[in-house]
Prior knowledge:
By secondary structure, chain A is α+β, with helices and mostly antiparallel strands. Chain A contains 7 helices and 8 strands.
Amino acid sequence: MDLLAVVVVSLVLVPLAVFCGGSPASLVLGLIFALFSPGYSLVAAIFPKRDDLDIVRRLALGFGLSIVVVPLVGVVLNFTPWGISLYPVLIALLVFIIAASAVAYYRRRRLPPEGRFEPRFRFSLSGFRGRQHLWDKVLLILLVVVIIGAIGTLVYVARPPDTGEAFTEFYMLGPEGRADDYPDVIVLGEEATVTLGIVNHQQEIADYHIRIVIGEQDVGGVATITLAHEEEWEQPVSFAPTEVGEAQKVEFQLYWGSESKAYHTLDLWVDVVGSQ
Amino acid sequence: MSRASLIKAILLVAIIALAFFMALYPRLDYPYPLHVDEWMHLGHTTQVLNTGHLNYPNPFHGGQWEVEGHPETGYYIWFGTSLLATGSSWLVLARLMPALVLGIIALVAYAWGRKRGFGLEAAFFATFIHTTIRFLGPAFLVPVTLGLVFFPLCLILLEKMEKDWRPLPLVVVSLASLFLIHGTTAVAVGFVLVIYLLFYLVLSKSPFRQTLPSLTCILLIPFSGLVIFLWNRAFVLREIQNIMNAEKIPLPAIPIPLPQLGYIMIALAVIGFGFLIARGGWRNYALLVPTVILLFFVQFYRQWFEVGPDILYERGWLYVMLLVAFIAGYGLSQLRQLGLDFFKRWRWGALPVYVALAVVVVFALVLRMDGYAKEDYYHVVNTPTYHDFKWIGEELPQDSVVLLNPYVGWSLVPISGGQYVYTAQAYPWGVEEAIEIDQFFRAGAPDTEYIRERNANVLYSPFPLNNPDLVEVREGVYILREGS
């Protein structure tokens, strides 16, 4: 049963990791796959007898020897044409787990039933409701509570806390929405376009507006943009310089709320040339 | 399950939950990795996964030279495999893994100590191992944390090997794997195992035939280091030379971390030392002697002789804390047994003993948390910087070379997913070039040639820059115009 469980978890994990990586199920099964299954199947293969090792040491060695096995499998993969990536790693470990489990199964079957290690988990509600001593029932319930508490502790402390830091992202991309093709030479009378983006992390709804300024002169802008917390805004924005000149600094000023001073400013240097 | 087993299971699960909490305590209010070493190792793991190989362009030197045979490559494979198998983001696993690893350390410590009657105590005090910026520790996701698992793991295998050949290859292979994860820990584990085996061979009364596996193990342990020698010969030879270097090197003082464990645990460790000596027997000496030698080494050898790389002494304190934790557990178990023997004729004799134990445990934990709370941990990045780096990874080409403030240099690579960072060596080692880059930013980065010489095309600056060849695409993020 234990070998079957280890192999089944591993087989279920592979498609999960490929198609649903990052889901809670792939997180749990993936951790079992990487941190426990290789070592446990190895221990089972080497120690098939009941009195070789008790269940506690098998579990402990399962975790510990997984830390041993995984790096060595990775080093071997490094020297293959496939390298260390999703499919080779999953398949290599899966092959290891299945092979070790198969050896464990074979070796156990060669032993008499009373001599082979076969963990059994028996729980019946009728036994629980029956004449079991009250203290035993209390302890069993307490064990379940503590296990839930341990899992809850892990989930609680492992979730990233919200730092509460309040800020706004303000960025500029090229006209196609990529970080390239920023305008550098503009013909007087024509418009240039960039893509501006805002992300609100102010922990509240925020109003923004944008001024595009060359020297003291407004050459473009965007009126009020209202964003909820974590909401994003990204749009192409055009501006038209009004004077010819080299190395003119175009300032994209982001204002937040009713502040009179710019919250962020991004600069773009352009040459403005006369029309032909 | 018997009642006693149920109680032990409850306590063990509670101790593992404590391990989760202790590992994550320094970052309960901070979502990111803490120590620059964590960021550095995350960066290397990112590169291993990006390239699919263990030789890759160094992400921390603008990709200008190759990392070949990194000495902690086994750790990068282990964490990289976890990332691939779970499909989770590195940020989630970087938080989860320290908790899980300390939980595993506690579980394996329990599995080893229970045969000698102090499993729960060993597991409990194993969660007390302190984490500092200097020594690192279980709260940081770093190779030495993973290496701590190998102490109780190999001790379990050695116990089994007293009557069985089968653990022998497991011990040798475990050490070989550990040499690829963290060589310093492998040397320390090997040292502890050799001492253990010597005491077994010399003092136990086992017949010669039964001791053959252990004798063979002693002979094979040094060969487990061959794997790191074959992996990176130059590194091993350099480290050996550093260790053997007889020149006096002025080393900065290392504060002893033991008081942070709490004085109850220290008192129990002293009591444990006493019991180990008083009870005698090769098993007790096998735990006592390597602890004393390691303690002497990290505390006195360094002060008297001032030789060797500092890392030996810094990481050595972690091993000492783990072994002292085991001995404190032994001490507590001996007191427990003495109490139970004393009160056994009374009807409720066990009750005062367990009440006293509970009081000791609670106060030990309170004192430990007090020591823990006083530790200062710096924050490399804040949330705006995290979002800046994430944006760089999403919007800029992956082969971008980023010139940036050296202090945050280590963190760019994992957050962005693999841009190269040019920092020479990152802060806080304060290499001259890193200081030079900082001054360059303060001056407004006026010299475009300076940027081009370093193959950089992106700058991340905490100071406003004033260079027409740069486009400020986001606050602090500048890209070099093509053709400039």
